[in-house]
Write a structure and sequence with these properties.
By secondary structure, the chain is α+β, with helices and mostly antiparallel strands. Strand 2 and strand 3 form a beta hairpin. The N and C termini lie close together (8 Å).
Length: 93
């Protein structure tokens, strides 16, 4: 199992719009991305995190170059971000 963690710096004024992007792409992510097992949104005072579950690190890495991520998710989130996202992939023991 693997986790892809994407931390987004989004101002309070743009948080609802960022959450809407999450909601819009959650179902397509779970239904079409190879190895996808879960997707969760964490909204904190300092940032927004999206946690993606995958069956393997390889599939988590592959998602970052998929059309769904690069052409859809990134395109819609980019105008809402205050800084570049922080991306981490973890392998669960």
């Amino acid at each position: 199992m693997a986790k892809l963690e994407i931390t987004l710096m989004v101002s309070a004024a743009n948080r609802a719009a960022a959450a809407a992007v999450y909601v819009k792409y959650k179902k397509p992510f779970l239904e079409t991305v190879a190895g996808a097992t879960s997707k969760d949104l964490l909204i904190r005072d300092e940032d927004v995190q999206v946690l993606h579950g995958f069956d393997t690190v390889l599939n988590a890495t592959a998602y970052l170059s998929s059309a769904l991520f690069t052409k859809d998710v990134v395109a819609e989130l980019s105008p809402l971000l205050d800084a570049a996202p922080e991306v981490r992939i973890y392998e669960e023991a």
